[in-house]
Amino acid sequence: MSIDDEDLGSEGLTENRQLQLFTDRYEFTRLFASYLNDDPPRQSILYFYGDGGNGKSLLLKFLQTFCSKRFIPKTWEQLKVNSNHRVVAEFIKNAKVRENCTAIPAVWHDFGLPARGENQPQDPFYGLLMLRRNISEAAPQYKFKFPLFDFACVWYLHKNGKSAEEIKRLFPLNEVAGLIAPVIDLVTQNPIGTFAKAGLDFFVKDIDQKIALYWQQRQLSGERLEEIRSKDVDTELIFELPKLLGEDLTAAMSERDKPPRLVLFFDTHERFWQERRREQGERYFYQDEWFRRLLRRLPLELGIVVVVAGRDHPKEQLQWTEAAKFPIPQQFLDIQLLWHLSAGDAEDYLRKTEIIQPDLVAALIKYASINPEEKDLQVHPFYLGLCADVVLVERKRGITLQAADFAVIPKLEDKTRELIDRLLRYVDEEVREAVHCLSACRAFNDELYFKLGEECHFQATAANFRILKRFSFVWQDKERGENWFRIHDLLRRLDYERENSTTCKAHEVLETHYREVGNLPEAVYHANRLDWERGVDEWEREFNAAFERSDYQLCRSFLSVRSDFCIKSDFQLGRISQSEGDYFTRLAQHAEAKQEYLEAIAAYNRELSLTPDDTATLNNKGIALQSLGDLQTKLSETDAAKLSYTDAIAAYDLALNLAPNYIEVLNNKGNALQRLGELQTQLSETDAAKLSYTDAIAAYDLALNLAPNYIQILNNKGKALKNFGNLQAELSQKDEAIESWKAAIEAFNRSLAIVPRNQSIRNLRDELQEFLKQQE
């Protein structure tokens, strides 16, 4: 059942070369093979975790490339009883398909890839759509169908304003001409041709009837169709997509001609969090919630094999088993630690690179170890690869390095810098400049390489690009295409921390480039790398603009880039968290919104511990507390809401003690008092409510004395007077209520005299006037 049972030599170190150099991990090769060959299928998720640079990605690529095979029963039984892991692993790697095994379709999904257009691997919509496309492309012979998921995606895109042609580009080309096109054309009401291909009666005029007929012809429940169409696409349907994809995969893997296994590889799981990996609370769990939803719905018992790689232990650090929503129970996790290489395995690796001098090999192994003073060396794969790069680059120049060249071993924390610096000293200056430029890219291809060469003034040639691709710290980015690459995060981080001038120039070029091509989130990322404050300011401004116009897809793109952001001030962190809280509130993600507001308040408190008299921080803290109070009121957490409003008012008072004429703070204080009065009215705390309304109106009056034509404050005062009048009427204080309503109408009239086209205020004024006539 599914978990959710509820409802560098002459060849260089290109990726193929890296796979050929792959060493050790024999027991993991055997373990993976058991998932593909044991019957019945194992019902657990294979999760590899370990430090950065330990070879998790390479292991997954190796398993996908060489080990996604299912053997005939006789061969597998012989392998199972063989106790030599290395022999078994070598046999699995070298076994020829069609001789005694068949190829198993294997799908790759890398969460670490930077978002690019609709390719956004961490996004709850586009990430799933990428996965769905990749499944179809990995197993075309099985013709997987995704009717529920596809219809929901098309409906989602249509409701978000995408045209039929834009939608078609998001699905596999071979399917657009067949199964997908009728769905798209039905939903978007495209021309006759595809209706006819779908076998529909075009003379049925009503679109609802057309869709129902299409659904009926495919023997699918009309109730499910209506359920999908009835959901709000941004606050409900998007969170149902993992479930729908899981249901479609369950149906597909139940067919007679289904593959015996289907492998889903998920790499770089930690990229959901980036520098926020150590935060806690619901916001932490929200980051990969859609992924956990999907995992819970996958039919493991039908032969789907899930392999995940990440830096953190899924139970102890990621706390998957403890998540309040959509946890992954312990019994469904097969957790494997990917540790460093042994000295013997490291020697095997160096031998494959044709580094065989015994004393040099011993020196390199000790240099690349995390414990060079101990007897049982633990060799860091990333450091070992860099050591090999250094030797091979020098060998190409006709220089043979000796063991003495690696006799001085730097501290562990300095090894990355030392090895990178040493390697780049030995390469051509143009290559060295290119490496520092490309470390600014979250991913690059030859087009970006040549563009950076032109703009950053290094000689970009095809030959140098081939050299770059051979380094051990350069990886192919297959999700984006055969000619896309990325540089290891450790090197990128090193160049950023050292403020490398070449890297900074590249960020300038890339910021301009991404603005020109219309990828604003990516441009803002590079702006942040150049000037973290400018990037944060623009992120907040553009995120809030997208939020105001309900462009939630763009909001999610900004959120994915925010994971890579550098934020060096608690004040700015509070601003970002506050915006995220507003976003999650709008999408009814209440637990996540609450967590963001709490993080914003905590950030402002840290800032105030250093600058207690900062009025802007006090004001922002008050706004965050007020927003939290609004959310708590909505969730009927009345005691907590009253406390939040009271704390917000206290923050505003502290700011006003320092700056009595701070108009924005006076307005905000009035708003918090008004909200508190509304809550107290609901709770029948009438005396307290009357006092809150009186204080709110007094705060607005103080602000209006300073700025008589401030439209927003006039409107807020009018609303407070109206609500105060309603309370007085409930208390049978009719004369007082009438006076309050008249004062409210006066405030609205003053506002409309300045902005006569404010229809919402006009309607509020007119309704109140009509009501007042009836009372008099």
TrEMBL record:
This is Tetratricopeptide repeat protein. Keywords: Repeat, TPR repeat. TPR repeats lie at residues 581-614. It comes from Floridaenema evergladense BLCC-F167. It comes from the Bacteria.
